[in-house]
Design goal:
Keywords: ATP-binding, DNA-binding, Nucleotide-binding, Phosphoprotein, Transcription, Transcription regulation. GO terms for molecular function: ATP binding; sequence-specific DNA binding. This is Sigma-54-dependent Fis family transcriptional regulator. One of its GO terms (biological process) is phosphorelay signal transduction system. This protein is α/β, with parallel strands linked by helices. The protein has four domains: about 5-135, Rossmann fold (3-Layer(aba) Sandwich); about 150-310, Rossmann fold (3-Layer(aba) Sandwich), CATH 3.40.50; about 315-390, Helicase, Ruva Protein, domain 3, CATH 1.10.8.60; about 400-450. It contains 20 helices and 16 strands. It has helices spanning about 5-10, 20-35, 45-55, 70-80, 95-105, 115-135, 150-160, 175-185, 210-215, 230-235, 250-260, 285-290, 300-305, 320-335, 345-355, 360-375, 400-410, 410-425, 430-435, 440-450; strands spanning about 15-20, 40, 60-65, 65, 70, 85-90, 110, 165-170, 195-200, 240, 265, 275, 280-285, 305-310, 340-345, 380. A hairpin with a 2-residue loop joins strand 4 and strand 5. Helix 19 packs across helix 20. The protein is globular and about 75 Å long. Mean pLDDT is about 85; it is low at about 1-10, about 130-140 and about 390-410. The chain binds adenosine-5'-triphosphate.
Length: about 450
């Protein structure tokens, strides 16, 4: 079959093998054929890219040295254009550094030359098995990035996924805390159970108990039917307490009890119901400091914070920006049904200098805006509109007294900042609050004060 025939063939092969040495290609293809797998092969980076864009594969195996480039380029290409496709590299004996670079870029494994058939078969079987076992819901998002800290974070996540300890994920807004929580859930033994995220800052204090533990019909005005709580909904799976620092103290006591007793009592019910949930939580705030200030209960802090995962802000890992940007641009292009746009070298360089107070979410918003503005297929410096003030915006104080809240809410600058962000997020209040570095409740408070809600 010629490359042209293959491109036009809708039937997917299982594995794409990329090597410029024909006898190695044949050897690999033959062993895979014996495993009942159909192969396509390519002898160069360009040929491989064309096949990857034209057909669907379950696995890709690439040699490192190719006549028009190297295997690392292909690993990067696959992470951005075909995320989710497992790729392994074949490296020359003794070049372990290259293998490590490939793993950091997202390859799942490597083989060394001369290729041993037993090792090859094991690697292929593993790749295909882990794909089949992969749970449907990891939120559809991967934790992308090639920085050393992110590679370490991925390793920690894999380890933590296997046990049941409560994990507190600490990082600024938009750094990927929810992506991480979903990964811990989806890589662990509870993957087939539900993942229930809850934004603790967005539930009104009066309804909190009923939201978490459920209620019985008639237990209060408006309780027209029995209602299941978040704990019951997450039973057998994971309950993710996002913005956990926003929980009122009274609710913290009840939550602690539910976690300790592994049981909840719905509002209006007489007895308790056993629940089996793993608790993950997250916040951009320093919980230990809140404990010291008497704003967060120490006993709950110890319960939920058995292990802390720190997610570094994007400005501490600018090397992740190219991979993230390419991935975001590919996703936007797929949504629009067009070819992905590229970032010019100058645009990329200036992104790497930007402090990104809103982290990956800010990068996503910025690129979405840039795609809307940009006319060609390359996004230039002029399209990315880096507002110098964006980098200077500090998160507002969150636990300060009403007086401080009022002063912040009253300033014109603050009003302009809030309104501009609301416009940018098309009045999606949750998204705007996150970008502004405040809770939904704080945003609502401001809008209410300004007579806008
Ligand atoms: N490493 C990453 N790889 C891919 N996407 C990422 C990564 N980090 C963040 N994102 C994306 O950035 C956006 C924000 O991520 P997420 O909601 O997980 O952040 P967060 O820290 O939970 O934010 P918040 O504290 O405001 O709730 C999402 O669209 C997410 O998919």
């Amino acid at each position: 079959m010629t490359q042209e025939d293959r491109r036009n063939s809708p039937v997917a092969a299982d594995v794409l093998v990329i090597d410029d040495e024909e006898d190695i290609r044949e050897l690999i293809e033959l062993s895979l054929l014996r495993m009942g797998l159909a192969c396509d092969s390519a002898g160069s980076v360009a040929e491989a890219r064309a096949l990857l864009d034209a057909r669907r594969y379950r696995l890709c195996l690439t040699d490192m040295r190719l006549p028009d480039g190297d295997g690392l380029e292909l690993v990067e290409f696959i992470q951005t254009r075909h995320p989710g496709l497992p790729v392994a590299v074949i490296t020359a004996f003794g070049s372990i550094e290259t293998a490590i670079r490939a793993l950091k870029l997202g390859a799942f494994d490597f083989l060394t030359k001369p290729v041993e058939l037993k090792g090859l078969r094991e690697l292929v079987a593993n790749a295909l098995r882990s794909r089949e076992d992969a749970p449907a819901d990891s939120g559809g998002r991967q934790l992308l990035g090639c920085s050393t800290v992110l590679a370490q974070l991925r390793q920690q996540i894999e380890r933590l996924a296997r046990n049941q300890a409560p994990v507190f994920i600490h990082g600024e807004s938009g750094t990927g805390k929810e992506v991480i929580a979903r990964l811990i859930h989806s890589l662990g033994p509870r993957a087939k159970g539900p993942f229930v995220p809850v934004n603790c800052g967005a539930i009104s204090p009066e309804l909190m108990e009923s939201e978490f533990f459920g209620h019985k019909k008639g237990s209060f005005t408006g309780a027209a039917t029995d209602k299941q709580g978040l704990f019951q909904a997450a039973s057998g799976g994971t309950l993710f307490l996002d913005e956990v620092a926003e929980l009122p103290l009274a609710m913290q006591v009840k939550l602690l009890r539910a976690i300790q007793e592994r049981a909840v009592r719905p509002v209006g019910a007489h007895g308790e119901e056993a629940v089996d949930v793993r608790i993950l939580s997250a916040s951009h705030r320093d919980l230990a400091q809140l404990v010291a200030d008497g704003r967060f209960r120490q006993d709950l802090f110890f319960r939920i914070n058995v292990i802390t995962l720190r997610v570094p802000p994007l400005r501490e890992r600018p090397e992740d920006i190219p991979v993230l940007a390419a991935h975001i641009l590919a996703r936007l292009a797929e949504r629009e049904g067009v070819a992905p746009r590229r970032l010019s070298a100058a645009a990329l360089a200036s992104l790497r200098q930007h402090p990104f107070p809103g982290n990956v979410r800010e990068l996503e918003n910025m690129l979405e805006r840039a795609c809307a503005l940009c006319e060609g297929d390359e996004i230039g410096l002029a399209d990315i509109e880096l507002h110098p003030t964006e980098g200077l915006v500090r998160p507002l104080p969150r636990h300060d007294s009403e007086a401080v809240e009022d002063a912040a809410a009253d300033s014109d600058d603050e009003r302009i900042r809030v309104l501009r962000t609301l416009d940018e997020t098309r009045w999606n209040r949750s998204a705007a609050a996150r970008r502004l570095g405040m809770t939904l409740r704080q945003l609502r408070y401001r809008l209410h004060k300004w007579g806008m809600e």
